[in-house]
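Table S2 (text version). Query chain:
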Amino acid sequence: MTRLLSNIFFALLMLSMPVCGAAQELDCKVEINSDQVEGTYKQVFTTLEQAINDYMNTTVFTNTQFGANEKIECRLFFTIKEYADDKISGDLQIQSSRPVYNSSYTTTLINFKDTKIDFTYMENEPLVFALDRMESQLTAILNFYAYLILAVDFDSFSPHGGEPYFDRLKTIVQQAQSSGETGWKAFEDTKNRSAVLSAFTDQATSSLRDLLYEYHRRGLDEMSMSPDKGRAKITETLEVIKQVYDASPMSVGLSMFKDAKFDELVNIYSKATQEERTRAYNLLQEAYPAENERLEKIKNGQEK
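Corresponding C-alpha cell output:
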C-alpha cells in the first residue's frame, strides 16, 4: 500500500521529494435525510446532496499523491431538521476509517456528530473551494471535516504526520470565527468545531495525537504479526485517555475516542489476559462512568 508507506515516512518524504502533482484524497459517501422537514418539495436536498458529494470527491485538498485504491474512506450523513428561505439546519455525522496493516480489517478513526449545522443554500448554487478566504458557511464546514479526516488519518500513520492539516484547520476556524456563523466560537460549546480543534491542539490534550499513532501504527498494525505485542501497546495508549481526563474532563476528544473505539476495544480485550483487561478497565472507567456495560465486557473478556 503506497499510502501506508508514504504516511509512515511522511516527514522524510516531505523533506526529500519534490511535489509532482496531486490526486484527490477522499472516497466520501454523502447522504442527506430530510424526513423531519415538512413540505413536499424536496428536490433542493437531492441537489444539495449531489453538490456536497461532488465537492468532497473532486476537490484536491493536499499535494500528496493518492492512488485510486488508497483514498480515505469516509461518510457524511446530514439530518435536516429545519428548512426555510434557503436556510438549512440540522446535524451532521462524520465517520472515517483506515485499513489495518496486513489484514482485511478497517478501523474507525472518526465517528462524531456535529449538532451545530446551520447554513444557507440556494438550489444549484455552486460550492467553491478556497483556502485563503471563507466562501460560505457550508464550504467552511466541509473543509473543516475534510482536513480533520486527513489530519487524523495522517497522524495514525506517522508521529504528527497530520501537522499541515491541523494548521489548515486552525486557519479555517479563525476565518469562520470572524464571520460570526454558528458552531465556531471558542468556549461557546464544549463540542463545537472550535472545541474539536482544541482537543487535538491545546497543550493539555494534544497527547491525543500521539495516541493516534501509537494506538494504530504500533498497536493495531502490529497485531497481525504479534497480537499480544500489539494489544500491549494499545493498553499503554489508554494512559493518554486518563491523562486527558485529568487535565480536561469535558474535552470533546474523550467522547470522540469513545465513539470511535469502544466497540473495537471490547473485541480487542476479549482475548487478553485478566491482568491486561483489568488494567484497561481501570484506565478507562473514571473517564467513562456511563459506559458501564461495555467497560464490564472489557473487564470480563466478553466479545461485542
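Notes on Table S2: Confidence is low (pLDDT under 50) at residues 8-21. The two ends are 30 Å apart (CA to CA).
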